[in-house]
Amino acid sequence: MTMTKLQKQLEPLYENGFDHEMVVVYMALLKLGRATTKDLLLKIKDQLNISYNQIYYILKKLKKKEIIEIQQGLEKKFTPINPSIILERYRQVKLEKLNHLEKILNEDYARTTSHFGLCTIQTNQFHFSSIEMGIKIIEDKFIKDCQKSVIFIATPPFIFKRLKIGIIKAYSRGISIEIQYSNRDFEELSDYIKTISPFIQKCNIQINRRQYRTYEAISINDAYTRVGQMLIDGKILVNYPYFIAKNKNPSIEHGIDLISGFYHAPGIIKQIQKSLHLNPIEQQINFIPPREANLIEFLQNEPLMQRNELCTKLKISGHELKNLITRLVKEGKIERISQPQQKGRPKEFIRLK
Prior knowledge:
By secondary structure, this protein is an alpha+beta fold. It is 44% helix and 25% strand. It has 4 domains: 5-81, Winged helix-like DNA-binding domain superfamily/Winged helix DNA-binding domain (Arc Repressor Mutant, subunit A), CATH 1.10.10; 83-116; 118-287, Endonuclease, Chain A, CATH 3.30.870; 290-352, Winged helix-like DNA-binding domain superfamily/Winged helix DNA-binding domain (Arc Repressor Mutant, subunit A), CATH 1.10.10.10. Helix 3 (20-32) crosses helix 4 and helix 3 packs across helix 5. It comes from Candidatus Lokiarchaeum ossiferum.
């Protein structure tokens, strides 16, 4: 049987142990607000043909899942728990399962990639003997240990795709992220920004499109190769030579030859940054994540808002909002305001700075 649009929207409920009868009764209760069994039977008669005993059994299952409350009286009445509380509970359970799965898979991945080889960590210069090992070290060590900034120069989409999670985690810690590129770096791509957007859309990133090419051109094994770069905290330099591996519309891929660089290269990085300053900016884009943009928009319309209001409007959990607020406070875009109350603790509000 084909799943209806409503059933697809309610799929998370089915995933968390609801059966069809429970979903129908709970949805009816949400619409009624508070109801007796008689009220519920009238409300769902077109969807379910059940008896008083059957609906009591369904309500008992809903109560066991702690998503409805019962008011005792001459006639029992039932009220639904706030759906946000229920979904947050399920969200946390799913997150715990994903974290556990991530741990298991990463253990296997670490074992799989360990035999590829090690970088020469004993020296200032490094060279990874496999692309997999290079990507893993960049994400697990360089980006994870980053304190201030990451600058991507002439970086092919492949790198952003592979480092997507690491970049998001760095951004969530307040790390400044920049992208420097030129259309001449990627003439084979009709729209470079559109190509990399799926991998950076959850981060606030400053993107500078320069007039002249930003990649280095070198020869490896007598073949012309471009070299993109990553600058971390103004000290670590990562080089990734790349070439066009496939050029068949609409698919274009950039193959990576190797990954190398220096653990401590402030002098080289200074020269690279100097060359960027001499390369005029043709366009500057501030890539703002949708949730961040929505939060700023809400605060422009309402000068003061509480956390619970923002959670509801943004449709995110309290934990996600906390991280978002912490990041925007650090960036100086918003601030927390504490207002004393006649009774109880002061209330915290959020406003634009």
